[in-house]
């Protein structure tokens, strides 16, 4: 059985859990990370030299990086609804996934630990304000895209792009600061809430 190494509270682990359930893949999730089994052991670093979660082990095949794992799982399950086979349609999904992992994630690097985690090391008010501005800029990009499609992030159907961005937008929604009005995102988020796997691994009270 597919093994998923990583604690359920990790936003990146939850991407993988949600993808597995959408794709109908059975898995065994094992808690690794802060507060659980260490990722700093030689054994774990042999799987992922970055000592980070998630990692999957699938019949001896080892893979890390959450978005790459999601792509692999969609292909493994032959779910071309989640990740299309046609080159341009696939690229349309994957560029949103890559943007989520780079630009969107970087936008909250300071504001999130300051405001949601209350980490005392993140107390620069200018950096927090700038982080909120950057975060809201990314949210505006998602809002504009959803206004264009009128449905899901990459077009008319639910894909991996909605999984990775659904978790990111959920983090934005749950972090306490004034949020702009984003009607298309609100409609999209309600549709995500109709998916049982999102309720378990996305909108489940964890950021």
UniProtKB/TrEMBL annotation:
InterPro entries registered for this protein in UniProt: Glutathione-S-Trfase_C-like, Glutathione-S-Trfase_C_sf, Glutathione_S-Trfase, Glutathione_S-Trfase_N, GST_C, Thioredoxin-like_sf
SUPFAM superfamilies for the chain: GST C-terminal domain-like, Thioredoxin-like
Domain of life: Bacteria
Domain GST C-terminal residue range list: 86-207
Gene3D superfamilies in UniProt: 1.20.1050.10, Glutaredoxin (3.40.30.10)
PANTHER family referenced in this protein's UniProt entry, alphabetically: DISULFIDE-BOND OXIDOREDUCTASE YFCG (PTHR44051:SF19), GLUTATHIONE S-TRANSFERASE-RELATED (PTHR44051)
Protein name: Glutathione S-transferase family protein
Species assigned in the record: Leclercia pneumoniae
Upper classification of the organism: Bacteria, Pseudomonadati, Pseudomonadota, Gammaproteobacteria, Enterobacterales
């Amino acid at each position: 059985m597919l093994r998923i190494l990583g604690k359920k509270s990790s936003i990146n682990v939850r991407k993988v859990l949600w993808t597995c359930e959408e794709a109908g893949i059975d898995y065994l999730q094992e808690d690794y990370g802060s507060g659980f089994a260490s990722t700093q052991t030689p054994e774990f670093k042999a799987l992922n030299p970055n000592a980070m979660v998630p990692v999957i082990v699938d019949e001896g095949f080892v893979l890390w990086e959450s978005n790459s794992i999601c792509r692999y799982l969609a292909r493994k399950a032959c779910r071309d609804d989640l990740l299309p086979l046609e080159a341009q349609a696939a690229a349309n999904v994957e560029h949103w996934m890559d943007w989520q992992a780079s630009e969107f994630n970087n936008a909250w690097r300071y504001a999130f630990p300051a405001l949601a985690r209350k980490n005392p090391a993140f107390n620069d008010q200018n950096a927090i304000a700038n982080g909120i501005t950057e975060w809201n800029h990314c949210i505006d990009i998602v809002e504009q895209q959803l206004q264009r499609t009128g449905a899901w992030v990459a077009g008319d159907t639910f894909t991996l792009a909605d999984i990775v961005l659904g978790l990111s937008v959920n983090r934005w929604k749950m972090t306490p600061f004034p949020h702009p009005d984003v009607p298309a995102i609100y409609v999209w988020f309600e549709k995500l809430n109709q998916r049982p796997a999102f309720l378990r691994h996305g909108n489940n009270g964890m950021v």
